Amino acid sequence: MENLDPSYSGDGMYREHIMDHYKNPHNKGTLDDADLTRTEKNPLCGDVITISLKLENKKVSEVKFEGRGCAISQAAASMITDEVKGKNVDEIENMTREDVVNMLGIEIGPVRTKCATLGLVAVKEAIKN
Ligand code: FES
Questions:
Q1: 69 near 111, Cβ under 8 Å?
Q2: Is residue 39 one of the residues assigned to a domain?
Q3: Is residue 53 part of a domain?
Q4: Based on the structure, what is the number of domains in the chain?
Q5: How many Å lie between the centroid of ligand 1 and the Cα of residue 117?
Q6: Mean pLDDT by 10 residues, the chain (129 residues)
Q7: Is the pTM of this model over 0.85?
Q8: What integer pLDDT is reported at residue 1 of this predicted model?
Q9: 72 lines ligand 1 (CB under 6 A)
Q10: Residue 103 Cβ contacting ligand 1 at under 6 Å
Q11: In what order do the strands lie in the sheet with 36-41?
């Protein structure tokens, strides 16, 4: 059975890495002059991530996120914003769940996948148009 406890953050040696991003998230906040914003919600729990970003020559020049939710969703969003900064939109479109799993450093089941990829989905949806 998957653990849906919002404070659940995974086990083992990678837990601290996740908790570190959860407690001290990178790129937290909103960009007042964002080119694109997007909010994604996990319908299973109601948690949300809002991404705002700026593009320059099809590259992400600045990105921030706001949100509330479990440690996995917030830590993953922090890692994803670090990761997409400087990337062009094609590279971001090719990013997958596996990339997020690698960033987190733990394997995640189907229920937690939504938590882990919430930030990535928000970024992808933002740049889609
Ligand atoms: Fe809501 Fe993870 S439990 S996003």
A1: no
A2: yes
A3: yes
A4: 1
A5: 10
A6: 55 77 97 97 95 97 96 97 98 97 90 94 93
A7: yes
A8: 47
A9: yes
A10: no
A11: 36-41, 48-56, 59-68
